[in-house]
Amino acid sequence: MDIRAEILDLKLRVEDLETTTEQVKESREHDKLLREVIDRTRRLQAEITALRAELAAARSGLGEEVAAVGTEVEGVRRAVSAPATPPIGEHDERGDAPGDVRAEIAVEFAVIRSGIEHEFNFLRSEVMDLAIKLDRLNLATE
């Protein structure tokens, strides 16, 4: 065989080896990135699952709290609507009977109800925002 042909053959083999080596390096980098993406996705899915569990617990707790408030509200309504019989001739500076606390309860009840309603609306809004974000994250990971 001719020396030039052998040198050319060796050059081609070296180029093939260099190309193969570069492809292996690129393949290893892609595999490494892919493993990292898969690991992050699994961690994100686990965190989403934990957040959904917390969200479900918060929703059920909120439902229990609202039910308890409803029960208390009903009791206050019954107490306020019950007729009071003040002693004859006893009135305070506003003209209300001292034993008649219905007006005071009604005012306090309105203030408390307004505060509870505001807090409930805020919590409902936050829960809805979290649910939307979790759904978006879940779609992004799938």
Provide the fold topology.
Elements: H1 3-81, H2 102-141
Helix pairs in contact: 1-2
Identify the notable features of this structure and list them briefly.
single chain, 142 residues, mainly alpha, 2 helices
Task: Compute the number of helices.
Answer: 2
Tell me roughly what share of residues is in helical segments: over 70%
* Gyration radius from CA atoms, angstroms: 37 Å
Give the averaged pLDDT, no decimals: 80
Total domain modules: 1
> Which of globular, elongated, flat, extended, rod-shaped describes the shape?
rod-shaped
N to C succession of SSEs? HH
Report, as a whole number of angstroms, the end-to-end distance. 60 Å
What is the beta-strand fraction?
A: under 5%
| Sheet having the most strands | none
Number of extended strands: 0
Supply the helix-strand structural class. Answer: mainly alpha
What does this structure look like?
With 142 residues, this protein is an all-alpha fold. The chain has 2 helices and no strands. Helix 1 packs antiparallel against helix 2.
What is the structure about, briefly put?
The protein has 142 residues and is mostly helical.
